[in-house]
Write a structure and sequence with these properties.
Helix content: 25-40%
Strand content: 15-25%
Bound molecules: threonylcarbamoyladenylate, magnesium ion
Radius of gyration: 20 Å
Strand order of the largest sheet: 1-8-2-3-7-4-6-5-9-10-11
CATH superfamily of the largest domain: DHBP synthase
Number of domains: 2
Distance between the termini: 44 Å
CATH class of the largest domain: Alpha Beta
CATH architecture of the largest domain: Alpha-Beta Complex
Number of strands: 15
Order of helices and strands: EHEEHEHHEEHEHEEEHEHEEEHEH
């Protein structure tokens, strides 16, 4: 598939919705910047987003929804979160909230965190696509990692043209600046990324000053609250070729027939997209087995393997006590 720029007509939006449901990537306009969209409920589709962007790490992605009803199936909305939704949705405010117990979105959109970023875009094409896809759409800005966000369909084509099935052309975007990202996870709202909604406008709604990301480390009761990556309780032993019966095992490809306390194969066929889609759920489940150590078989370093290995290395690194 190659990324054809097409007009955002009803027919092409319907086709884009079908492509999203089939697990393909579709670029689409929002009122901020163009997004690189995938079915948020499909782990392999979400993994393809990271592959397309060439991100060497798994950053959590924004899940796009039509409004609060769809958002509440994914995240937990406090009274303050609802107030902000009422004031700013649809619009360029992204809210980071705790994941709902039965959230039907891939763990990869949260990069393993217990939180999820949600926003309802205010652009007729984005909204029509969300309706056509009949599911939430995970979408980072439609640029390659390290490049600036795309505000025109042509920019998307230049950056990601060979990676997307379709690019819906909605003309230049209105804001040209990403959404404001606000975390509502720690009880006190924290501005994680300044963006199209000014902080002052949010402060008027909540009636108090927002904490900035830089001010939060000292102020938060637990520094772990701001941590941007998931850390299992168990120790990780990387590049394991064999293991003890009391260890849990994270496998990749062909696995030796050895006893283990628990074992999960990220991809028996050695497929990195499948492995990325399974990574966080697998770590969580092996951690829950109660094993003190998770032995991790080697994962190749190419393609998505770079981000997978980055995450495994971080999970294996010694952690400061108390976090
Ligand atoms: O305007 C926008 O927000 C665009 C359009 C396409 O909606 N999207 C966008 O996505 O800018 P992206 O992936 O380039 O930026 C998402 C930001 C990142 O800074 C990411 O770290 C943060 O949101 N984020 C996402 N999920 C998070 C989470 N669970 N916790 C903390 N930060 C999160
Ligand atoms: Mg971006």
């Amino acid at each position: 598939m190659h990324g054809r720029i097409v007009p955002a007509s009803a027919d092409w939006i319907a086709e884009a919705g079908r492509l999203i449901r089939s697990g393909a990537l579709v670029a689409f306009p929002t009122e901020t910047v163009y997004g690189l969209g995938a079915d948020a409920t499909n782990g392999e589709a979400v993994a393809r987003v990271f592959e397309a962007k060439g991100r060497p790490t798994f950053n959590p992605l924004i899940v796009h929804v039509l409004g609060l009803a769809q958002a509440e199936a994914i995240g937990v909305f406090s009274p303050m979160a609802r107030r902000l939704v009422e004031a700013f949705w649809p619009g360029p405010l992204t809210l980071v909230v705790p994941r709902a117990e039965a959230a039907n979105v891939s763990e990869l959109v949260s990069a393993g965190l217990p939180t999820v970023a949600l926003r309802a875009p205010d652009h007729p094409v984005a909204r029509a696509l969300l309706k056509a896809a009949e599911r939430p759409i995970a979408a980072p800005s439609a640029n390659r990692s390290g490049h600036v966000s795309a505000t025109r369909a042509e920019h998307v084509a230049a950056d990601l043209g060979d990676k997307v099935a379709l690019i819906l052309d909605g003309g230049p975007t209105a804001h040209g600046l990403e959404s404001t990202v606000l975390s509502l996870v720690s009880g006190q709202p924290i501005l994680l990324r300044p963006g199209a909604v000014p902080a002052e406008t949010i402060e008027q709604i909540i009636g108090s000053a927002l904490m900035r990301r830089t001010e939060t480390r000292a102020a938060l009761s637990s520094p772990g609250q701001l941590e941007s990556h998931y850390a299992p309780r168990a120790n990780l032993r990387l590049n394991a070729q064999s293991w003890q019966p009391d260890e849990a095992v994270l496998g990749f490809g062909a696995m030796p027939a050895l006893r283990a306390r628990a074992q999960i194969n990220l991809s028996p066929s050695g497929d990195l997209i499948e492995a990325a889609a399974n990574l966080f759920a697998a770590l969580r489940s092996l951690d829950a087995s109660g094993a003190a150590t998770i032995a991790v078989m080697p994962v190749p370093a190419h393609g998505l393997g770079e981000a997978i290995n980055d995450r495994l290395r971080r999970a294996a690194a010694p952690r400061p006590s108390g976090s």
